[in-house]
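Weekly modeling sync, notes
Attendees: S.R. (lead), two postdocs, one rotation student

Agenda item 3: backlog of single-chain predictions. S.R. asked that every request posted to the team notebook include the full sequence so nobody has to chase files. The rotation student volunteered to paste the first one in as an example of the format we agreed on. Action items at the bottom.

Example entry:
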Amino acid sequence: MKTDFDKVNEWLIQLFHDFMILEEQFLKDSAYSDVTVKELQILTLVHTLGTCRATDIAKNQKLALSTITITLNRLEDKGYIERKRSTADRRVTHIILTSKGDELCATHREFFHTITDNLFDSVYGTTENKLAGEYEIMTFAKITQVAHYVPENVVSNDDLSKIMDTNDEWIYSRTGIKNRHISTGENTSDLAAKVAKQLISDSNLSPETIDFIIVATVTPDSLMPSTAARVQAQVGAVNAFAYDLTAACSGFVFALSTAEKLISSGAYQRGLVIGAEVFSKVIDWSDRSTAVLFGDGAAGVLIEAGASQPLIIAEKMQTDGSRGNSLLSSYADIQTPFASVSYESSNLSMEGRAIFDFAVRDVPKNIQATLEKANLSAEEVDYYLLHQANSRILDKMAKKLGVTRQKFLQNMQEYGNTSAASIPILLSESVKNGIFSLDGQTKVVLTGFGGGLTWGTAIINL
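Predicted structure, as returned to the notebook:
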């Protein structure tokens, strides 16, 4: 009798698929409901290999290292694996299972023994309970388009010297800023809407296909409606939900992290993430310590489902509200029939030295911790796109991380500090100028830091 091996192979594949569906249901109803079948496969491989590294797993599974790293990050956070590190440079030397991971693998083996013991009954017997369900498919997000917009009105350091006691040399030597773009009437939603329209137009999309709009800003047109809602109306994205995210100069990084999770959930296919500020309306133009620093602008990205690898390799977001008074803006008086509380000023105020120290002390630690989560050295990153606050901060960041300064891209000399818009403006300019493209081949660190205090890093595949 001649055996049709193609049919046997097809049957075995289907059988294995059915086993995985059954085990997925088993996991959901067990003490290990936080683990997916795909994560369990990685745990089983770690158990089989014994002492191994992420590169060994990636090679075995024929997957990108960044994809494996994302899974390992989740498994470590859940307590199933432990990364052993070198005491010399903190690099990961190998990966082992924790006792929790060992227990899950033992449960997995017991499950499959039970299944195989009853295999022939399942194949040849008549059963009313047929295996059903769908294989879990992981959805990855990707940035497919970038755009930026700034007001036409350019205000130079020399222009500022005409209205306050300052000069070009004083400003540039301390900040690296030469110019800033200042609105002559456009509000935050106007800038953001121009970016949104450009993103949609350049992608040849209909506004109706946008699922969500997130605008990171601390200078909204109004608290209600949100700036994002105004943008949704201006561009005609009638099917999109929209909201603002308030995290100051970290806003775009926080918003991108949020959007990536929305896409990866599988519930949404496409969204806009925009950072937009009109800081000129909250500045005290008689205070040279702050007025020379800030500018107006907006930029953003179109984020969509469909990537073959994760957008965010690793991330770390932080907040310390106990230091929030170091950078303040837009206090609202309480004037009601029941209370009367007035604040000195609603304009922006900043403790410059405290913010500078925070940036050069806490932010590099955040970047280094994120690099460790991604199992990357600082030199393995192609570019660093950090919040554009001060060129001296970037100098110190590069030195602390041991990275050549050329990897830290900079455009603050033209735009000043645009808060939540600074990172996406730099990102958009870098793509438009051909420094890198959106082909998934470039590893980029995005790091924001500022009011809140907030700071955060996302290492992304662009």
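Discussion: group reviewed the output briefly. The first strand starts at residue 81 and ends at 85.
Action items: rotation student to repeat for the remaining queue; S.R. to check formatting next week.
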